[in-house]
């Protein structure tokens, strides 16, 4: 991208409303059954609707869907190659640190390898791939009043602070 474009001021002062959220993500998967085994069986999402053997919609807490899964253009496909554009990862945010700990323990109990774990200051995150190689971040946000700030008061994000995964996993047993 042209550096002048990257540093250009936005054309208007409009800001998205503060209570805007991301409604759902729709993922292309190679095998709907494997995807449902992972997202519902391991992570614990609820199956809301299914369309034959080509699509399913899952959620947490009865929402119409947080994640759509489909094989419309990807049945039997392979993971996207590295160094291509597209989704880097999907973050699933848990309401409590203990909920995150339980989810991570379930992932490990299912024999799924973790790719990493980090303390980002505002949150803690554990990284893995789903059965189709789609990157996932399982995360928990600290309360806003605990977020680290710069001297100017801006949020200070840490890219990969040290993180004690064993301490987190002990919380799953509490």
Question: What is the topological layout?
Answer:
Blueprint: H1 3-6, E1 25-28, H2 32-42, E2 46-51, E3 55-59, E4 67-70, E5 90-94, H3 97-109, E6 114-119, E7 123-129, E8 135-141, H4 165-173
Parallel strand pairs: 1-4, 5-8
Antiparallel strand pairs: 2-3, 3-4, 6-7, 7-8
CATH class of the largest domain: Alpha Beta
Mean pLDDT, to the nearest integer, reads 92
Number of beta-strand segments: 8
Distance between the termini: 49 Å
The general outline is: globular
H/I helix tally: 4
Please give a handful of descriptors for the protein shown:
4 helices, alpha/beta, 2,3-Dihydroxybiphenyl 1,2-Dioxygenase, domain 1, 8 strands, 4-stranded mixed β-sheet, single chain
Describe what this molecule looks like in 3D:
The protein is of the alpha/beta class and 174 residues long. The chain has 2 domains: 53 residues, 2,3-Dihydroxybiphenyl 1,2-Dioxygenase, domain 1, CATH 3.10.180.10; 88 residues, Roll (2,3-Dihydroxybiphenyl 1,2-Dioxygenase, domain 1). Helices cover 21% and strands 25% of the residues. Helix 3 packs across helix 4. The radius of gyration is 18 Å and the shape is globular. The model has no long low-confidence stretch (mean pLDDT 92).
Offer a quick outline of the entry.
The protein has 174 residues and is of the alpha/beta class.
